[in-house]
Amino acid sequence: MLTRPSRLESLGNQEVFYFVHSYYPQPADRNLAGCFTDYAGEFASGIVTDRVIAVQFHPEKSQRAGLTLLKNSVDHLAKQG
Questions:
Q1: What is the distance between the alpha carbons of residues 80 and 29, in angstroms, rounded to a whole number?
Q2: How far apart are CA 73 and CA 59, in angstroms?
Q3: pLDDT at 40
Q4: What is the pLDDT of residue 5?
Q5: Of 6, 24, 42, 55, which residue is the least packed, with the fewest Cβ within 10 Å?
Q6: Residues 79, 57: Cα–Cα separation, whole Å
């Protein structure tokens, strides 16, 4: 579950995504984190820059929230040229 709003449009603060394992990034610059998840402690579950979007979970297995994330990712990257 995302605990902070994603920097990608249209994702709410409480979206639920499918995780398979317990690995996660620990960015040196927390401003790179596009979203956070709270599961046995808060962690960055996604990284967003102008040209890179990476998430720790499986959007393709995450129902409507996953489809929204994939659409928003394409829209975000298309705006970057």
A1: 21
A2: 11
A3: 85
A4: 52
A5: 42
A6: 24
pLDDT of residue 23: 80
For residue 35, what are its two tokens?
A: 């979203």
C-alpha span between 21 and 8 (Å, rounded): 23
State pTM to two decimals.
Answer: 0.74
Residue position matching structure tokens 């690995």: 23
Query: Per-block average pLDDT, block size 10, for the chain (81 residues)?
Result: 57 79 83 85 86 88 90 86 71
Phi and psi at residue 59, to the nearest 5°: -65, -30
The three-point CA angle 52-11-50 to 5° equals 20
3-state helix, strand, coil in the chain (%, to 5): 30, 25, 45
Inter-residue contact 12 to 1 (CB < 8 Å): no
Q: Which two tokens stand for residue 29?
A: 């610059």
